Amino acid sequence: MAESAGQSYLTGAMLPSGEKLINAVLTVHPDRVTVVYRQQLSAPYFMWTGGEDGYRAFLFDPAGSRNADTAFLLCYEIALPWRVLKNHLDPVNDVLFLSNIWWAAGTGIQATMLAHAAGWSRLFGVPYTATFNL
């Protein structure tokens, strides 16, 4: 990764935590890495893995965290009303939507996710930023 003075980068990670997997957003600085958002992986992850990795599924995430006035939506969460509504229980200034959809190249999934993001943004009157790992 190229280093630039005064800049940091966001990346996603799956971190093990006991019998749970934690979905995390990390800020990578030239001299350190910090977790800015974390949540338990919910049921859709386990639909694809079948729990083969030994971790348990969580339908509703009681341990999600917020980062100041920014709400985070990761991957498929943009299409799950309870995740979006949970993020808007408290006022937010913006929504950061991150997704790793390399597996969906050549499909309409990216356009569908962007349409969801735009719709939620209009409904709540909050701007969003979307980023995809293609």
Work out the strand percent. Answer: 25-35%
Number of helices: 3
Average predicted confidence as pLDDT: 76
Judged by helices, strands and strand pairing, the structural class is alpha/beta
Give the strand tally.
6
Major sheet = 3 strands, antiparallel
Using only C-alpha atoms, the radius of gyration works out to 15 Å
Question: Are there runs of 5+ residues with pLDDT below 50, and where?
Answer: none
Strand order of the largest sheet: 1-2-3
**H/E element order:** EEEHEHEHE
The N- and C-terminal alpha carbons lie at a distance of 17 Å
The percent of residues in helical segments reads 10-25%
Morphology call: globular
Explain this structure.
With 134 residues, this protein is of the alpha/beta class. It is 22% helix and 33% strand. It contains three helices and six strands, in the order βββαβαβαβ. It has helices at 43-49, 81-87, 109-124; strands at 9-17, 20-28, 33-40, 70-74, 94-100, 128-133. The protein has a three-stranded antiparallel sheet with strand order 1-2-3, with no helix packed on it. A three-stranded parallel sheet has the order 4-5-6. A hairpin with a 2-residue loop joins strand 1 (9-17) and strand 2. The longest helix is centred in the C-terminal third of the chain and has 16 residues, at 109-124. It is globular and about 40 Å long. The model has no long low-confidence stretch (mean pLDDT 76).
